[in-house]
Write a structure and sequence with these properties.
Layout: H1 2-7, H2 9-28, E1 37-38, E2 43-50, H3 55-59, E3 64-66, E4 72-78, E5 86-93, E6 114-116, E7 118-121, E8 130-135, E9 143-150, E10 157-166, E11 171-177, E12 188-196, H4 206-209, E13 210-216, E14 231-233, E15 238-241, E16 249-251, E17 257-260, E18 271-275, E19 281-285, E20 288-289, E21 307-309, H5 318-321, E22 324-332, E23 339-343, E24 358-360, E25 365-373, E26 375-384, E27 390-391, H6 393-396, E28 406-412, E29 421-427
Parallel strand pairs: 3-10, 19-22, 20-22
Antiparallel strand pairs: 1-10, 2-4, 4-8, 5-6, 5-9, 7-8, 9-10, 11-12, 12-15, 12-16, 13-28, 14-15, 17-26, 18-19, 21-26, 22-25, 23-26, 24-25, 26-27, 28-29
Length: 428
């Protein structure tokens, strides 16, 4: 295995050149997006999480905080030897993530123009980088927000990242139930939920004023919006979503694949070999195969598609001492009609050309090489058709038994209001 993988190096180098060409158009589009997006290929490992002592737990937490406890920290790396002073702005959005028309002064107490001056240089790493930190300023009202980071002017975007601030004015009941419908019950996960809005004042038409969003594994790309309640109980101030329709179900997906590169001194989970080089190490993952025809099976340390950064030798200094390495994915498979990508939290669940896999006819496998920071990663292999639609079923399959995480957002728009407030949140 190791000999075969080392023999791939010239081919992998060639694939990097091809990928570099394919990424040009991806990074040319600098139009502002109200979503998690990186506009600069030199910006890596963008994280936004509640500040807490345990860095590992913090990185696995979502950027969703109560209005009374706003402690969000944005971090990112730039592959460079010199630091730059970046700027940031906070953009308010509505429940569907369209940009709000509210003026800045209605949701911020300070001028909406911030300098990111808190940075550190990498220490004892083969790949030099600058690590940036930015404390998200407090907002005055609940809802959806995007932090926009740019250099010098707003046209020169670096990254955008979503975060949510909620009020605890509702209670949410959520129950995962067996899916209805013969064969589909084996691959879907169904749910029913209820929302009690007693704490929300001024509700006249709950059907129109209250909206519900449900996510699976903290993904926005397949979130369910605009759920219609089955029953509206005005006296109890409760909405019930109990009809077993297709609008209330998710594909079960599968337990995530995992690799551990917290240290290159010994091989972690999923690692086959490491080639040590002066400029950057090359980590070769164990050769994998499609799970389309396999029975359901659990996995160790499934983080529901997320990842966290850590150097196991000096975990408390991981932000600056966790190095970058070229991680080589190898997927044994026949050639498929559609393109194949690596996807997960490490790509913000986007189809990123840096993670596109190339097929090697001689060996009958897909391969990709991606620069990643030391840590533990969850991921999937997915196919993408000409319409850019994601379908991981051919390589990962779907099972109703899969242990997925869900969270629910409750939005409310008062009569004659110009914006949506986030009045409830529950994580399951």
């Amino acid at each position: 295995m190791k000999i075969q993988l080392f023999a791939l190096l010239p081919l992998l180098f060639l694939s990097n050149l091809i990928v570099a060409q394919n990424t040009e158009s991806y990074y040319e589009d600098m139009s502002f997006r109200t979503e998690d997006f990186v506009y600069d290929p030199y910006i890596k490992t963008v994280r936004l999480f509640p500040r807490q002592t345990n860095l590992q737990a913090a990185q696995l937490s979502q950027p969703v905080v109560p209005l009374s406890q706003q402690t969000l920290l944005l971090t990112f790396d730039e592959l460079a030897s010199d630091a730059r002073v970046y700027k940031a702005k906070i953009i308010r959005c509505e429940s569907d993530w369209t940009e709000s028309t509210l003026p800045d002064m209605e949701y911020l107490s300070v001028y909406n123009d911030f300098l990111i001056r808190d940075y550190d240089f990498s220490i004892n790493t083969k790949v030099p980088f600058v690590h940036y930190k930015f404390q998200i300023p407090r907002v005055k009202i609940s809802g959806n927000y995007v932090v926009k980071v740019f250099f010098e002017d707003e046209e020169n975007l670096i990254l955008t990242k979503r975060f949510m601030v909620f009020e605890e004015k509702t209670s949410v009941g959520f129950e995962q139930i067996p899916a209805v419908g013969g064969q589909s019950s084996l691959i879907y996960q169904q749910f029913k939920l209820s929302v009690n809005y007693t704490g929300v004042k001024g509700v006249v038409n709950p059907n129109q004023q209250i909206s519900v969003v449900v996510r699976q594994n903290y993904r926005w790309d397949n979130a369910i919006y605009d759920l219609q309640p089955t029953f509206v109980k005005d006296f109890q101030k409760t909405l019930e979503f109990s009809s077993l329709t297709e609008s209330q179900r998710f594909l079960g997906s599968n337990e995530f694949r995992l690799f551990d590169i917290r240290t290159q001194r010994k091989f972690g989970w999923g690692v086959d070999s490491v080639r040590y080089q002066k400029d950057a190490d090359h980590v070769f993952l164990q050769r994998e195969k499609s799970r389309a025809d396999l029975a359901y099976g659990t996995r160790l340390e499934d983080f529901n598609g997320q990842f966290y950064v850590e150097n196991s030798q000096r975990p408390e200094q991981s932000t600056t001492e966790a190095d970058y390495a070229y991680v080589n994915f190898v997927l044994k498979s026949q050639k498929l009609d559609n393109d194949v990508y690596v996807i997960g939290g490490l790509t913000d669940w986007k189809i990123n050309p840096l993670f596109k896999m190339r097929y090697v006819n001689e060996g009958g496998y897909y391969t990709a090489e991606v620069l990643l920071k030391q840590g533990i990663y969850n991921y999937f292999y997915t196919t993408v058709n000409q319409k850019k639609e994601i379908d991981y079923s051919p390589l990962e399959n779907n099972y109703f038994q899969t242990e997925n995480a869900y969270d629910v957002f409750i939005y409310y728009r008062p009569m004659s209001s110009r914006t949506d407030y986030l009045v409830g949140y529950r994580k399951i």
